[in-house]
Structures are given as structure tokens and as C-alpha cells.
Design goal:
Order of helices and strands: HHH
Number of helices: 3
Strand content: under 5%
Number of strands: 0
Radius of gyration: 26 Å
Number of domains: 1
Low-confidence stretches: none
Distance between the termini: 37 Å
Length: 116
């Protein structure tokens, strides 16, 4: 096995590793989506049941909105990781030529006619 063959194999394995990490982002995205729906539903229930403007109700509303924003952040993070890791992993598994040429720095020799 030559150096180039070993480099191709390592690029392919790195692509598989990145694709596995893309799969790990799916459960986090699903749980964040469910949390967004559940918290938003609970927030709308609180708004409809509490007609008063007490400090406790305002604090509860702020807390619920904060939880929704946190869940939205987690969902966006999981979606971005899934998309980017999938693109990078598929590139490394299927093609990877640009990465191969960047990593495979062979010594370039001068043509015989250019020697002093």
C-alpha cells in the first residue's frame, strides 16, 4: 500500500466518522423541536388561563419565552451541525480530491532543462 492509497483510505474513514457525528445531531434536533412545541403550548395555556398582570404571571411568561428561545437555539445548532457534517462527510466519502491534493504534498522536482 503506497502513501497515496493510505491517504485515500484515511480520508474515506474520516468522512465516515463525520457522517456518524451528523447522525448524532438528529436526536437533539428532534428533542428540541418537541420541546419548542410543548413549551409554546404550555405558554399559550398560561396566557389564556391567567388574566391578571401580577409580577408572578409576568415572570412565568418571561421564563417560558426564554425556554422557547433556548430550545430554538438548540434546534438551530443541531440542524446546522447535521447539514454541515453531512456535506463534509459525503464529500470525503464520495470525492475528496481537493482534500487529497491539499494533504498529499509531494516534492516537485525541477525539469532537467532548468538546471544551472
Amino acid at each position: 500500500m503506497t502513501k497515496q492509497d493510505a491517504l485515500w483510505v484515511s480520508i474515506r474513514f474520516l468522512g465516515l466518522y463525520v457522517l456518524v457525528h451528523a447522525l448524532f445531531a438528529i436526536p437533539q434536533g428532534i428533542s428540541s423541536a418537541f420541546a419548542i412545541v410543548a413549551i409554546h403550548h404550555a405558554d399559550s395555556q398560561i396566557d389564556s388561563s391567567e388574566k391578571d398582570t401580577t409580577a408572578e404571571a409576568a415572570t412565568t411568561r418571561r421564563l417560558m419565552r426564554s425556554l422557547v428561545l433556548n430550545s430554538l437555539h438548540d434546534f438551530a445548532d443541531a440542524a446546522a451541525r447535521f447539514i454541515l457534517y453531512t456535506i463534509a462527510g459525503l464529500y470525503m466519502v464520495r470525492n475528496g480530491t481537493l482534500l487529497f491534493h491539499c494533504v498529499n504534498r509531494t516534492e516537485r522536482t525541477e525539469p532537467a532543462g532548468n538546471l544551472p
